[in-house]
Amino acid sequence: KLPFTIPELVQSAPCRSSDGMLYTGKKHDMWFVVDPETGEKQTSLTTSSSESICPNTPLLYIGRTEYMVTMFDTKTQELRWNATYNDYSAHPYDEKQDYKMAHLVSSGDGLMVTVDRESGDVLWTQNYGSPVVGVYLYYEDSLRHAPHLSLAMETLRFLTFSSAKDQAEAHSTLKWSYQFVTEQASAQTQLIPTLYVGKLDSHLYASTSLVHRGVSLVVSAAHNTTPCSNKGH
Fold it and tell me: Is the pTM of this model over 0.70?
């Protein structure tokens, strides 16, 4: 764990740490021009190339910045680490906005459950195949961040299927109260903040996540105060 974010490292590169690590960085910007009705990319704009844009309206402009950092160990003469991080430009979420939905995502796989904040009714579910790290709203001609809550894979399924009000009701297993999650109303299902470490393909990833009591946790030997879930994808 470094005391800097990847964008901060790229901004300060090239730099050298006190333990002999050399850092190099690169930043690459791009705009995607998307048809908001079909989701199809019309064109992309970069510093080196730009294609003509058809005068279709409206269009959605999505800015992406790719940060690349490498770390070279001068003591062992080895490339120790390289990382690529993508950040998408979006307006911050406005707390004054009356947003009706709550997005609950699984940190262990790609499951997302979207519920109505007032009734708790599930509006839709989708599994995207990989963990969801951001949710965005289509706002005018750009994106705006939408709030989402990350839960352990076991916890999201536990809440979804254990909080049904009426088992006889159709689709009742997908009906539960949003307040049940946000207020941690039940002592038996109190949610605990953790750092979730998982594996996707050949890459490791980490995200803050909530778990309920009973989910298996493993304590890191280096940092005994930080519990990590041992259930990766």
Answer: no
